[in-house]
Specification:
The protein is an alpha/beta fold. 36% of the residues lie in helices and 21% in strands. The protein has a 9-stranded mixed beta sheet with strand order 11-10-12-13-21-20-19-16-17, with helices on both faces. The chain has a 7-stranded parallel beta sheet with strand order 5-2-6-1-7-8-9, with helices on both faces. Strand 19 and strand 20 form a beta hairpin. Helix 4 crosses helix 5 (114-133). The longest helix has 20 residues, at 114-133. Bound molecules: glutamine.
Length: 543
């Protein structure tokens, strides 16, 4: 019998539900149980692919090519899982499915309604994930905040699941903010009480309440939360501020949450084993070195736009006992005042992330040129890879005004161009080259040194690619394409052999980076930043 844990949020969004959900999963995994996780997003978009990363944070790409909510990234990193499209359920997906069924005549003669047709669709999708993944426990996080209009059908569906699956097989966790007043330093539980009331009004009584507070809540706050939440005090936990997000499962479990969850769900009680997790957390908390990295991007104002990249840099840092400081620099800075690019000299490495469209592109190209000419370690991902090709074409191969046709459709040298299969594609949703594809690596290259394999599988999300017509010219100039698609026609990795570390990929290594298992390209970059800082003639990579 599969157990279901549902996580809702109160008071405001971005309260850390995704981390709490991931942490519960970790506590159960540490006790030897198999888990999976689902994110419900009540917005009407079918997937996150059509949203602006500046507003909603990054689009997380799954192995099967899903363009999903960034919380799936947290689940994958915390639980070391590969999830898929089906682990992200949106209002768009649900309504699309229900309307398609209605048009097909599946409900012929009946009036199609939110209850039961929409709620049935939601429940069956949650149960399908349970059936497909062969796990002991399915965690389902409902995005947004209790009280949102668009979240109601989902809350109704999870309410019904208690009746259908049974009390001992379902558990409701409510995560809500407990603010501390500036003036009196008092912990205020009233907003949390109201959100619990709102949840109860629609028929859900939480079994566990997690107070999100900057500090550990005091006994008075705990007592009030339990009293007004109608739960025992040992069902109240606190997710307080910690130095590293990866500590959260440890601090919650130390409060007894793991044992409480197991007991409540009738799971056998077991001692958790956190050995690997703790040694990773130790490496994060006790670095011996530090490096400063300039991230030159266009969504620099919102850290969540680059969350998987930040985490991949941190995982890589932990592997070489190095704290990675990431400085976000708006690429347009270097367009408005070209001399400012000199500021990059103070950094140990330059990183150009994914991106779309022309805003800031010239600034990124200027940063790449600076990295190349000054022998500063450089890592480019996706758009960063494409712009490294543009920079090299212009400034080394002498192809004046070379560009990507994404930026300038009329460039005389379209060194990066739309992929042939993208021509004629008009719909914008889920039409990029997405998800896992094989990459063949050339032996004897830096790429081979990092990946130690001639064949890897990496995740993608792009419409443009290096134009084969310019291959010879670029290679003659000294650019090495050390990774390609199996048919050899698609460039996947570039490197400059004479540079300290100049590496870029069309794919996104960050989506496969895990605590304790850093992604090779991110590891190579951070290690090169460190070794150059330590004055080593060449970076030394440990396999
Ligand atoms: N805009 C580029 C493309 O569509 C790069 C995309 C990306 O960085 N993910 O190919």
């Amino acid at each position: 019998m599969v157990k279901y844990i549902f996580v809702t949020g109160g008071v405001l969004s971005s309260v850390g539900k995704g981390i709490v959900t991931s942490s519960i999963g970790k506590m159960l995994q540490a006790r030897g149980f198999k888990v999976t996780a689902i994110k419900i997003d009540p917005y009407v978009n079918v997937d996150a692919g059509t949203m602006n990363p500046y507003m909603h944070g990054e689009v997380y790409v799954t192995e099967d090519g899903g363009e999903t909510d960034l919380d799936l990234g947290w689940y994958e990193r915390f639980l070391d899982l590969n999830l898929g499209k089906n682990n992200n359920i949106t209002t768009g997906i649900i309504y699309k499915a229900v309307i398609e069924k209605e048009r097909r005549g599946d409900f012929l003669g009946r009036c199609v309604q939110i209850v039961p047709h929409v709620t049935n669709e939601i429940k069956s999708r949650i149960r399908n994930v349970a059936a497909d993944s062969n796990v002991d426990i399915v965690l389902t996080e409902v995005g947004g905040t209790v009280g949102d209009i668009e979240g109601l059908p989902f809350l109704e569906a999870i309410r019904q699941m208690r009746l259908e699956e049974g009390y001992e097989n379902t558990l409701y966790v409510h995560v809500a903010l407990v603010p501390i007043l500036d003036v009196t330093k008092e912990m205020k539980t009233k907003p949390l009480q109201h959100s619990v009331n709102e949840l109860r009004r629609i028929g859900i009584q939480p079994d566990i309440i997690v107070a999100r507070c900057s500090q550990m809540i005091d006994s008075e706050a705990l007592r009030k939360i339990a009293l007004f939440g109608t739960i025992p005090e040992n069902a109240v936990f606190c997710s307080y501020n910690v130095e590293s997000i990866y500590q959260v499962p440890l601090i919650l479990d130390a409060q007894g949450m793991g044992d409480f969850v197991c007991k409540r769900l009738g799971l056998p009680e077991r001692k958790p084993n956190y050995d690997d997790w703790k040694s990773f957390v130790d490496a994060i908390l006790n670095p011996e070195h530090e490096v400063r990295i300039a991230l030159v991007g266009k969504y620099a104002g919102l850290v969540d736009s680059y969350v998987s990249m930040n985490e991949a840099l941190r995982h890589a840092g932990a592997a070489c006992k190095t704290k990675v400081h990431i400085h976000y620099i708006e690429a347009e800075t270097f367009e408005k005042s070209p001399n400012k690019v000199e500021m990059l000299r103070d950094f140990d490495g330059i990183f150009v992330p994914y991106g779309f469209g022309s805003r800031g592109a010239e600034g990124k190209i200027a940063a790449i040129k600076f990295a190349r000419e000054n022998n500063i370690p450089f890592l480019g991902i996706c758009f960063g890879f494409q712009l490294a090709v543009v920079e090299f074409a212009r400034n080394v191969c002498g192809l004046k005004d070379a560009n990507s046709t994404e930026i300038n459709p009329n460039t005389p040298h379209p060194v990066v161009d739309l992929m042939p299969e993208q021509r004629g594609v008009e719909l914008k949703g889920a039409t990029m080259r997405l998800g896992a594809h094989k990459v063949i690596i050339k032996p004897g290259t830096l790429a081979y040194k990092l990946y130690q394999s001639e064949e890897i599988i990496e995740r993608h999300r792009h419409r443009f690619e290096v134009n084969m017509v310019y291959m010879e010219k670029l290679e003659k100039g000294g650019l090495v394409f050390s990774g390609r698609s199996p048919d050899g026609r698609r460039m996947e990795i570039l490197e400059l052999p004479d540079h300290y570390f100049f590496f870029a990929s069309q794919f996104h290594g960050e989506f496969k980076s895990r605590p304790g298992k850093p992604d090779p390209e991110y590891y190579g970059f951070v290690k090169a930043c460190l070794d150059r800082k330590l004055g080593k003639a060449k970076p030394e990579f440990q396999p």
